[in-house]
Design a protein that fits this description.
Blueprint: E1 2-10, E2 13-18, E3 21-27, H1 29-33, E4 43-47, E5 52-56, E6 62-63, E7 68-69, E8 73-79, H2 87-99, E9 103-109, H3 118-130, E10 134-136, H4 142-151, E11 156-160, H5 167-174, E12 185-186, E13 191-192, E14 200-204, E15 207-211, H6 225-228, H7 233-238, H8 256-262, H9 268-283
Helix pairs in contact: 2-9
Protein name: Small ribosomal subunit biogenesis GTPase RsgA
Subcellular location: Cytoplasm
Binding site for Zn(2+): 242, 247, 249, 255
Length: 288
């Protein structure tokens, strides 16, 4: 019996990597009965002779769309232009990633295509003040590519972001042998076509990196009103200073978070998105 990690799933077969060898395995029939679906990123016990996965170990986290498990960090790629920089969309990605206890890093791509960097610089300062690592990236920037590459070491990383922001371009620049397909931006829609069709883990710089088909849903289905503040690091920091336990930082008096916004310790735009997301969660229809 051996231990390994699933690095690819295709048509009912699972590529399991163990000690730098890859074995193409099938899942046990009992998985179907127990409604267990092995995911890319799963740590498994398998029989290298029979090439069968025997057990799937407990997960630290999992994403449904894309289907991948045991992720340590997410590099959230957002473009400066084409598609235009969208802080609300970025904050949606960050909340979804934080809600799964995954460490996010922000990469702003296509820096080489903007005339003035002042606005992007302002956003960079806001997110760095919130506690995030922000990397400004162009594929030609060796320094930025090295920064991203260093993040991969000893971690399992997912590359997240909407279509057309340059996720595959970023990975191709770091490891040209990947030759991942990239796509032009649709002028009519202002967004790219999906070029990544399945999840696969690649070995880069002593870590594993998933190039994914992107999040097909950005809904907060699994995030509660009470948990939302935990997904904003700067709100998480000020929350213990609020007068009332369970403060949602909306209409409550003596709220330390609202005070921090007034004193410009928390970015106004970030707080506005928090309130918008809070009301969205509060108003969603219950699922049965």
């Amino acid at each position: 019996m051996g231990s390994g990690i699933i690095i690819q799933s295709l048509s009912g077969f699972y590529d399991v990597m163990a000690e730098e060898e890859t074995y193409r395995c099938k899942g046990r029939g009992v998985f179907r009965n127990k409604k267990i679906t092995p995911l890319v990123g799963d740590m498994v016990e398998f029989d290298p002779e029979e090439k069968v996965i025997l057990t799937v170990k407990e997960r630290s986290n999992e994403l449904v769309r894309p289907p991948v498990a045991n992720i340590d960090q997410a590099i959230v790629v957002i473009s400066a232009v084409e598609p235009v920089f969208n802080s609300r969309l970025l904050d949606r990605f960050l909340v979804l990633v934080e809600s799964k206890r995954i460490d996010p890093v922000i990469v702003i791509s296509k820096q080489d295509q903007i005339l003035s960097a002042d606005e992007i610089s302002g956003y960079r300062n806001m997110y760095e003040k919130a506690g995030y690592t922000v990397i400004l990236s162009e594929p030609e920037s060796l320094e930025a590519m090295q920064q991203v590459k260093e993040l991969f070491k000893d971690r399992t990383t997912v590359i997240a972001g909407q279509s057309g922001v340059g996720k595959s371009t970023l990975l191709n620049a770091i490891l040209p042998s990947l030759s991942l397909e990239t796509a032009e931006i649709s002028k009519s829609l202002g967004r790219g076509k999906h070029t990544t069709r399945h999840v696969e883990l690649f070995s880069i710089n002593g870590g594993l990196v998933a190039d994914t088909p992107g999040f097909s849903s950005l809904e907060f289905d699994d995030v509660t009103s009470e948990a939302l503040g935990e997904c904003f690091p700067e709100i998480r920091e000020y929350d213990p200073e609020c007068k009332f336990r369970g403060c949602l930082h909306d209409k409550e008096p003596k709220c330390a978070v609202k005070k921090a916004v007034e004193e410009e310790e928390i970015g106004r735009e970030r707080y506005d998105h928090y309130i918008e997301f809070l009301h969205e969660i509060q108003n969603r229809k219950p699922r049965y």
